[in-house]
User: Which sequence fits this backbone?
């Protein structure tokens, strides 16, 4: 099965990216290994949410993406290989095909070496290295993007979620050949 976009990691960055890509009508696969650091968090600094447990925030984000058609697979990605028309993503359970990949792996950069992704030192406390991305979220491997903590933004969920949305919008825009904007309007 070939999907338009495979997103690896379903924390705030990956879940937010999946929400935007699925809502834009892109066939979206969200692959999560259940290792999100957000699953250990208590949040009182996420805009618009008085307080929430990290696991609940992640669950709500995944459900929002699923509402628009994103498919969630619980598995650990072990390899990403470039193919003629995109990427082959191997997990500990199955293999998937995607035109584009968005990495939202938080602190985990284990795919960097085997995939040939460039990294650079991290600037956040406890973040040793991050994927080296441009302002849009592109890595050095064409077709692979990165968002959130693994792309060098602050570890705060509101920031990683926003970065996931930003990267998704950039990916959608590139796939569509025109700037993508998603605005819903109140119905009177």
Assistant:
């Amino acid at each position: 099965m070939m999907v338009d976009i495979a997103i690896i990691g379903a924390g705030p960055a990956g879940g937010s990216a999946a929400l935007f890509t699925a809502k834009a009508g892109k066939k979206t696969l969200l692959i999560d290994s259940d290792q999100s650091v957000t699953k250990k968090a208590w949040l009182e600094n996420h805009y618009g949410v008085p307080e929430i447990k990290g696991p609940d925030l992640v669950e709500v984000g995944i459900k929002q993406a699923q509402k628009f058609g994103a498919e969630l697979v619980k598995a650990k990605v072990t390899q990403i290989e470039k193919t003629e028309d995109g990427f082959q993503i191997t997990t500990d359970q199955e293999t998937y095909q995607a035109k584009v990949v968005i990495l939202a792996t938080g602190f985990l950069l284990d795919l960097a070496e085997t995939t040939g992704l460039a990294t650079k030192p991290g600037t956040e406390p406890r973040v040793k290295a991050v994927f080296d991305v441009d302002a849009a979220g592109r890595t050095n491997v064409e077709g692979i993007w990165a968002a959130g903590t693994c792309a060098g933004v602050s570890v705060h969920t509101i920031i990683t979620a926003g970065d996931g949305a930003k990267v998704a919008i950039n990916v959608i825009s590139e796939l569509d050949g025109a700037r993508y904007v998603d605005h819903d309007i109140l119905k009177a």
In short: The two ends are 41 Å apart (CA to CA). The first helix runs from residue 12 to 23.
